[in-house]
Amino acid sequence: MSHHHHHHDHTTGNIKIAFFLNFTFTIIEIIGGILTNSMAILSDALHDLGDSLSLGLAWFLQKYSKKGKTKDFSFGYKRFSLLAALINSIVLIVGSVFILTEAVPRLLNPEQPDAGGMIILAILGIIVNGAAVFRLRGGESMNSKVMTWHLLEDVLGWAAVLAVSIVMYFFDAPILDPIASIGITVFILYNVVKNLFKTMKLFLEGVPENIDYEDIINRMNRLPNVQSTHHTHLWSLDGEHHAFSTHIVVSEHATKDQVCTIKEQVKEILEPIHLDHITVEIEYEDEHCSVMGHDEEEGGLQHG
């Protein structure tokens, strides 16, 4: 348990450091983008500003998510971390769309930016965002994963700005600036939308990724003395901590030892999954299930 608590403190501390790194550099690059007249720099600056706001929110909600259960939140506050991931994704999508509306007109009327200044800012951008990615890498919560992705995209964005600014330093090709800006933004938008769908799936209590739900049901149904299963649910609190519940029907003559054995075998089936909550309800075959829904059949899933 102490190891788990330490892991969360580590995650929160890393997000805090990444926030201060990102926010300080965002101020520098907004000023630098205006001075160099570079749309690519300003596009990264706006994106970094979104990231800074997101990191600040992620830091606050990650910290908040460590609170234990209360009378209002019986699962605790882990989902607040997921809320941060959702808000962050929306902030970045809005920012990306705004950048595209600014960059596309520049394709028709490209303006020559200060390539030398862009090179310096791009090198700084790679160093600062690279340091932030290094701090956040390996985080398990969806919040950490979303933030790591955003910062990694910033590193790639700055690498693109560096390449473009070097070319513009030696050649007269101002159109490369809005092209780089659009390319960076579209790439970021694609990955943010992808993460938004993952986050929404968790919010809608979808089965966590990389877990074979049907296989779990089939394995439980094959256990000795198990007649059928129903109301089997597997969902995630924040992308890292999962919960599971099921109803298992046994013979009316099943003994206490057999029931205890079934419960242990179910836990063995579920062992590879990081579950914070497991609920196994045993029902005897002559017992009526009070919560049996009309859309669920004994024995597992309906396919439609």
Textual characterization of the structure:
With 304 residues, the chain is mainly α. The protein contains 8 helices and 3 strands; from the N terminus they run H-H-H-H-H-H-H-E-E-H-E. The protein has a 3-stranded mixed β-sheet, covered by helices on one side. Strand 1 and strand 2 (242-250) form a beta hairpin. The longest helix is centred in the N-terminal third of the chain and has 35 residues, at 2-36. The chain is elongated. Mean pLDDT is 79; it is low at 1-8 and 294-304.
Topology:
Elements: H1 2-36, H2 39-64, H3 79-108, H4 115-136, H5 142-170, H6 176-203, H7 213-221, E1 226-236, E2 242-250, H8 256-270, E3 275-284
Parallel strand pairs: 2-3
Antiparallel strand pairs: 1-2
Helix pairs in contact: 1-2, 1-4, 2-3, 2-5, 2-6, 3-5, 3-6, 4-5, 5-6
Secondary structure category: mainly alpha
Count of DSSP H/I helices: 8
In whole angstroms, the N-to-C terminal distance is 42 Å
Order of helices and strands: HHHHHHHEEHE
Strand order of the largest sheet: 1-2-3
In round numbers, the mean pLDDT is 79
Strand content: 5-15%
Helix content: 55-70%
How many beta-strand elements? 3
* Low-pLDDT stretches: 1-8, 294-304
For the sheet with most strands, the description reads: 3 strands, mixed
The general outline is elongated
Search tags:
disordered N terminus, 304 residues, 8 helices
Please provide a brief summary of the model.
With 304 residues, the chain is mainly α. 64% of the residues lie in helices and 10% in strands. The protein has a three-stranded mixed beta sheet, covered by helices on one side.
